[in-house]
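Subgroup meeting minutes
Present: P.N., E.W., G.H.
Scribe: E.W.

1. P.N. recapped why we're keeping a running log of single-chain structure predictions: easier to compare across weeks, and new members can see raw inputs and outputs side by side.
2. G.H. added today's entry (174 aa).
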Amino acid sequence: MSKFIVISGASGVGKGTLVKRLLSEVPNLTLSISCTTRKPRKGEIDGVSYYFFGKDEFEQRIKENLFLEWALVHGNYYGTPLVNIEGNILLEIDVQGALAVKQQKPDTILVFIAPPSVDELRKRLDNRGTDDDKELRINNAVKELSQQDKFDVVLVNDDFETCYLKLKDLINAS
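Output recorded in log:
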């Protein structure tokens, strides 16, 4: 039987870095690769980073019920494909998607990664330099932060190593 663990939080909180390290250090953990209509960023590979689809193809997959969850986020579709995977499944998805997965799979563990502050989040997005729509992401982050009480665990990523160790302990205990 599969155990679903969802890592969520606003853009720029460090989800991707945390997930990358978890996958390198925690055995029997499988990352579910999400689908999106957004354009690939530099270095992203189709089928590894995401499955990249055009809007029409994504909407057809919605009609065919091929997603565990899907949402329109930052003007692009994102979704978790329905796949038969055994073991501990790690999903790195947006807040809307996380809550949708929890509805369909109530035993899912929802983990919210929070920034120390909105100002720090803004600095991280500035330093990342990959987001043309930074203000949209900041506005969405404020909304997403208001949803953190719906998650099983909230970890503030004010110190990466501390946050990572707490997350790793949580996953090893589940």
